[in-house]
Amino acid sequence: MDTDLTSGMDLYHKVYDFRNLYNAYMAARKGKRWKTATNRFEANALECVATLQKQLREMTYRMGAYNVFEITEPKKRTIKSTAFKDKVVQRSLCDNVLEPVFERSLIYDNYACRHGKGTHAALKRTEDFYRAAYRKHGRDVWVLKCDVEKYFDSIDHEIVKRLMRKFFNDDRLLWLLDMIIDSTDGKGVPIGNQSSQWFSVLLLNEMDHYIKEKLRIKWYVRYMDDFILVHHDKEYLRQCKKEIEWILDGLELKLNYKSHIFPLKHGVDFLGFHTYITETGKLIKKVRHDSNKRVKRKLKKFRELYRNGERTKQQIDQAYNSWKNHVRHGDSFYLVKEMDKLYHKIFEEDVTCHKD
Fold first, then answer.
1. What are the helix (H) ranges across 210-332?
2. What backbone phi and psi angles, to 5 degrees, belong to 179?
3. Over the stretch 308-322, which tens digit does the pLDDT of each residue have?
4. Are 91 and 17 in contact (CB under 8 A)?
5. Which spans of this chain does the record mark as coiled coil (predicted)?
6. 188 membership: H or E segment, kind and range
């Protein structure tokens, strides 16, 4: 795999090009125009973009402090959100440099962050692979389901910086990349940074190629640190798991305890759905039980946010419809019907309370 793709190329100027920065600002503000920081930047957008351009060109740019907070869904995580100006810079960096360069080296079946990919494309590809495996081997098919333990929190800065030097030799660009990578202490990269998403996509890229080209796994899908290998030989998948653990050890990462080999006929949890194949070859894709419980908790939380005036009904409708559009990619007719009934009951009560 050729990774020395930009030898002798000056890519840094693409980050601070005024048009690129302005487009990055326009993209970064989407869905965030209600925030105070976005409003401040927007009030003097041309001046703010020009200031960023000058700072980047003269290498006087410095990142602001992170806003640190915790989320509990889908699991407990500490989120570090950067200042809006830094989101603009990272958007320009990712859209104009990282994505076009990294894209050339990624395998087809790596689905996170990329245009035309995403969760639903990964799910569709997984279904296609399950059906292909069934046609060739029947129900005697095994799935090695893996994910990396505390992936974002475990990424080593020096390993990422060495990886960046395989792709770039522009000193100014490396200065900016190093600043972003080292913007937090110790191990880990902030999950809220757009650049972190791309670092994380690329970090396991050599593992992807090894699985496809050396282990010769035809049916393989990865979405960030979640990935599956489909094969008819369970023993061979055991060997593959050992090879994967060896690769991850070199990156100072490890698989979590939930990484196991499962028979497809009993079902596999992947990207929010539990999927299995019946004796007749029908593929069934159900929303995972923990996801069902999670959405019920969310509906109750939405009610509190609505009562306290922290969210409008329109914002809550948008979030709920987004969830429905996701679960409709599976066999979820009765689940959606049940949740719709609960949703309308909750908000009918609140509308009545508001009227009183």
1. 234-250, 289-307, 313-327
2. -60, -45
3. 777 777 778 787 777
4. no
5. none
6. none
Q: Which two tokens stand for residue 222?
A: 């990865």
CA distance 285 to 347: 30
Strands 67-71 and 142-147: unpaired
Helix axis angle, 171-181 to 84-93, nearest 10°: 130
- Distance of alpha carbon 108 from alpha carbon 173, whole angstroms: 27
3-state secondary structure of 287: strand
- Using alpha carbons, select from 180, 200, 187 the residue that is nearest to residue 66: 180
The mean per-residue pLDDT over the stretch 120-135 comes to 95
Asked which of 147-151, 220-224, 348-352 is least confident by mean pLDDT, the reply is 348-352
| Percent of residues, the chain, with pLDDT higher than 70 | 94
For residue 6, what are its two tokens?
A: 């930009």
For 226-275, the pLDDT digits (tens) are: 999 999 999 999 999 999 999 999 999 999 999 999 999 999 999 989 89
Q: SS3 for 97?
A: helix
Instruction: Report d(CA 227, CA 112) in Å as an integer.
Output: 11
Q: Taking the alpha carbons of 176, 182, 188, 189 in that order, is the dihedral positive or negative?
A: negative
